[in-house]
Amino acid sequence: MQEKLQELKRHLLEISDLSSAYAVLNWDQSTYMPPQGATYRSRQQALLVRLAQERAVNPAIGRLLDDLRPHEESLPYEHDDAALIRVARRNYELAIKVPPAFVGRLVEHAGNTYVAWTQARPANDFKGIAPMLEKTLDLSREYAQHFPHDHLADPLIDQSDFGMKTEDIRRIFAELRRELVPIVQAISDQEPLDDSVLRRHYPKQPQLDFAYELAKAFGYDPQRGRLDLTAHPFMTKFSPGDVRITARVKEDDLGDALFSVLHEAGHALYELGIDTAYDGTPLNGGTSAGVHESQSRLWENVVGRSRGFWEHTYGDLQKVFPDQLGDVPLDVFYRAINKVQPSLIRTDADEVTYNLHVMIRFDLELDLLDGKLSIRDLPEAWHSRYQSDLGVRAPSDVDGALQDVHWYGGVIGGAFQGYTLGNIISLQFYEAALKANPHIPTEIAQGKFDTLRTWLTENVYSHGSKFTTADLLERVTGGPLTIAPYIRYLRSKYGELYSLPN
Amino acid sequence: MQEKLQELKRHLLEISDLSSAYAVLNWDQSTYMPPQGATYRSRQQALLVRLAQERAVNPAIGRLLDDLRPHEESLPYEHDDAALIRVARRNYELAIKVPPAFVGRLVEHAGNTYVAWTQARPANDFKGIAPMLEKTLDLSREYAQHFPHDHLADPLIDQSDFGMKTEDIRRIFAELRRELVPIVQAISDQEPLDDSVLRRHYPKQPQLDFAYELAKAFGYDPQRGRLDLTAHPFMTKFSPGDVRITARVKEDDLGDALFSVLHEAGHALYELGIDTAYDGTPLNGGTSAGVHESQSRLWENVVGRSRGFWEHTYGDLQKVFPDQLGDVPLDVFYRAINKVQPSLIRTDADEVTYNLHVMIRFDLELDLLDGKLSIRDLPEAWHSRYQSDLGVRAPSDVDGALQDVHWYGGVIGGAFQGYTLGNIISLQFYEAALKANPHIPTEIAQGKFDTLRTWLTENVYSHGSKFTTADLLERVTGGPLTIAPYIRYLRSKYGELYSLPN
Fold first, then answer.
1. B-chain residues within 8 Å CB-CB of A242?
2. Residue B42: closest C-alpha in chain A
3. Does ipTM exceed 0.90?
4. Which of A247, A298, A444, B119 is least enclosed, having the fewest CB within 10 Å?
């Protein structure tokens, strides 16, 4: 049995290393690649993807998984070997259900559509790209049809948030919406907080240096990572010894680089905390988009935008920017970074309104998949939902239906729910951490993060993909997904900044 | 036939793209990879090497090459298709002669020995690494035995300088030696030139910026390349649209970054000048170590250390370093960058003594392969040759037998001759270029390089690996390799700086 397991691991290692090599090429493309390298690079990336896919559907893996079933069933659910076989089987069965030729078409179309989007968005040309997006919708539907489902979106959601159903998410989002709308409404009726101090002139390098220092204070290890500049911030993992983050920096927006670095550092802490014994296996990665986002949002928002954190940190920031912040009291700064205001751009949205952006996209995805909405009518549906949900309307499709890359570089369906699941889960985990270690907020206010990070590593990070989102929630909180902790958090934090209804 | 050719090209493209992906991982390892990424990265690189090797010996390629033989023979030698089939066949036959398991052992041993060398060199521990080097020597001999040869070194030389025989190189080196020794002797008897102006304090960034500007003036295109810092400078190609160079910079040595950037830019101009139609085929690379080095040395030395070049450029350099060079006349600077002095380090050697360093290594390689010299006695043999040939002796093995990476990261044999062949060839090509365009030196003295680069592109670069070194020399100069132009050049240039014997 051990021999079969070793053989399975050899297959999985090759898939893992090919994916890592792909990730390096991808990182390089986003950071340092000269412009003329682009077309050749896409071809090289496509080869690595194809080689990994070929290996992922190798029938030898199927046979090994069959042979290993008795071994798996003889072990407890949480045994590493059982988890490895379980997750490898899940991936294998997912991979073989879709014909390789179809995957090829999908990947190629996604690549072409992404390139077209990079031109269509600045040109505000939704009409031009609409035929490609129609094909994406067709392909997304066709993809989903290969899998059993209650709703067509289920298999697409499964890709990033395994085990979550469309109906579950609809229900949770409806609950959350009922809570959020009156809060947003109440805040919108009040005098807006002043965040103009963030718009002063902040030179780039000190911003980046300061943000990187904070990431390192959280526990991000420069021996196992680095920070580079890209158009859109991201985290990427090449191995347990190499988990990188990227940032974007604006001289007239202090919050942009600062909080995106803390966000990506949160993702990185998760990946760096995974048991290194899982290296080269499908357990060596965060378990779902929702849990991953729970960690980026926890470190960015729950820690990084908390009053306690800045009580300790603000003096250091003032020393870096004495001309810009020397005359700005902590409270003014704290209010500025927590200003709530309905806006157009998801990634710039505050903690309270952010989820409304996600819900709009989630609903539009379902309507598109259901055939209730056509691609042609998507831009207007977008505007009308922003008008009704947030009271704002983008001047064009640039910040409307063309805003996010997701639909233009992948499939339509399952792309966005993880962001809001992450917000919800972050507070479930944080409350559990506080229950175990009530002094965590005190430590944060002293610039110490070890207790929190160690608790998260033990209870969440180290497990990698061993447990599903639902498993983790059950183990950590003793129950299923629930919005209560998140709502408690929003009400407590923003109740102090604004007058909120009961 | 066209279908078979397309099929062959598909096979070759995959090998090429896997090698390019490997090169990206390698570049990243040398530039930006965090320290803890190292072990995992080696494993990922080994996978890509193995996948490329597996494809290189695919019997389907052999069958296609057989089927395509009539097509090849129906075409003129210089037809692109004929060249493609010819070079693909050469590579295939080279690859299949060596059992894959042996290649695996060789690559693994080379990797381990390289890592050991990175520790042994700073520790001056030749004894510690000697057993590994003995194994390298055994493996090098075993490797060579797989190929027909007059001398064991022939197959090893073939790897980098296809078509050159040990005896040819011995003869050429002996001729060159006869010319060089009296020149070096005469110069050594004279008052040394003063190069102390190069040792003033030069901040790093302006050095790099200035060197990069010169590379761009030569024709290096930042849309298709970039400059980064590494411990040892190199050029690497990922595609016709992405050819990168690296540099090292020292604040107390103005020449180091400057001339190594021009050197690597020369390599890059060669690669960037190759017909883009050869992309993805084995024609898409410089044809040999010797011709490649001819281009790095041509741009670094023949152009970059010429008086005319600095007549135009020196004023700009003075503007960048007014405190360091404002009081230094052009002639003093020119003499400093062309100072001849027997020394210990090959890569720092001047144009005249450089080849003596190469010949020592070449002779030692032959003696090792012939069994006339044991690894145990290598350090003393090194010292004794340096004493007799250059009149200097390294204080330890750090700058002796441990100096160059080549033997510690590959095989013993064929590693060094290309450097001196390059020096010789650079002047054969340059004389041919001057014959066709006598105004090239005038243009260089005006900071213009288009005529020279265009001529080199048309006559050398564009052909990639289509022609062998001997083919190129015949086409460009109408004859074989000859040291006469190189000796004329050295005598003319250094006869002006020193008093030389007739």
1. 33-34, 36-37, 40-41
2. A17
3. yes
4. B119
